[in-house]
Amino acid sequence: MRCIFSVFFSLLSSRFDRPYFVDVLTSFVTSAKFTRHEFEEYVAPLVASDTEAAAHDPATRAVEVAHGLAFRNGLGQSLFAPAHNDLTVADIKSYAASAFSKGNIAVVGTGIDTATLTGLVEKAFEKAASSSTPSAPASKYFGGETRLEGNGGPQTVFIGFGTTGAPSSELAALSAYLSPTPSVKWSKGLSPFSSLPEGTSVQPVYLPYSDATLFGLLVQGSTPANVKEAGKTAVAALKAAAQGIKPEELKSAVAKAKFTAATTVDTREGLISVLGSKVWFLNYSSRF
């Protein structure tokens, strides 16, 4: 899934403070207050701003469209709200009532032992609504092709494909091999995208999810002609890599992929992405 509701606790404070912080953090889930003025004055403008920014960013727009073509429903749903929508506070409250339940909450703690966290969480969610663990249909890959008018920014093309099932280590290594970002700072990368037309760029896109993966090449440039030429070069490099690469290049790509995976958890977004796919809708009603 592209989006999963999870609560991540980082309890690094004194053990005497843990019950307090667990109580405070869980109160935002079990006793959330959705007020109309906050939604209209703070949330709605921020959502609209994010949507507008995404619409004017060719790279973001291309990746969002690629998801829709590849998977249609589920993973194909955009992460951004429509530019004009009729969402109200009542809708949010209704969604929260069904989503913020024991069967739909995952808690991951760091710096705290499992027994202590289990006891604190069980007590904190004692009065939370109970519901069955939600289910979602397995992702299916469809694929397709489309063209959209640009709203400024560089000319952009996304060339890719999707797969279903668990994330592939082979695709992770392929992404690392094609990435123009050097493994060592100040060094020259060994990416096959070294002979691109001036003013163009090719960036591999590897987005693994719990039951599917989107992989592709994001090609950008100042003119359609340059992008077309860069796209041909990118596809040729992809086909050449599929036919086989040198052993030393493969070894380097695998090492680079492992390093990328290891450093992903250094950021909050990366940690949520990695752990979210593993705790996928942990059912507290059966675990605690």
Structure description:
The chain is built from ten helices and five strands, in the order E-H-H-H-H-E-H-E-H-E-E-H-H-H-H. It has 288 residues and is α+β, with helices and mostly antiparallel strands. It has two domains: 7-136 and 267-287, Cytochrome Bc1 Complex, Chain A, domain 1, CATH 3.30.830; 155-264, Metalloenzyme, LuxS/M16 peptidase-like (Cytochrome Bc1 Complex, Chain A, domain 1). The strands form two sheets. The chain has a three-stranded antiparallel sheet, with helices on both faces. A two-stranded parallel ribbon has the order 1-2. Strand 4 (201-208) and strand 5 form a beta hairpin. Helix 6 (169-178) crosses helix 8 (247-264). It starts with 6 loop residues before the first strand and ends with a helix.
Features:
globular, alpha+beta, Cytochrome Bc1 Complex, Chain A, domain 1, two-stranded parallel sheet, 2 domains, 12% strand, disordered N terminus, 288 residues
Listing every helix as H and every strand as E from the N terminus to the C terminus, the arrangement reads EHHHHEHEHEEHHHH
Report the total helices: 10
Report the sheet with the most strands, covering strand number, pairing sense and barrel closure: 3 strands, antiparallel
Task: Calculate the mean pLDDT score and round it.
Answer: 83
| SS elements, strand count | 5
Beta fraction? 5-15%
Query: Rounded to an integer, what's the Rg over CA atoms?
Result: 22 Å
| Relative helix content | 40-55%
**How many structural domains in the coordinates?**
2
Low-confidence stretches: 1-12, 280-288
Q: Specify the CATH class of the largest domain.
A: Alpha Beta
| CATH homologous superfamily placement of the largest domain | Metalloenzyme, LuxS/M16 peptidase-like
Q: What's the architecture of the largest domain, going by CATH?
A: 2-Layer Sandwich
The coarse overall form would be globular
Computed structural class: alpha+beta
CATH fold annotation of the largest domain: Cytochrome Bc1 Complex, Chain A, domain 1
Head-to-tail CA distance between termini: 25 Å
Record the strand order, biggest sheet.
3-5-4
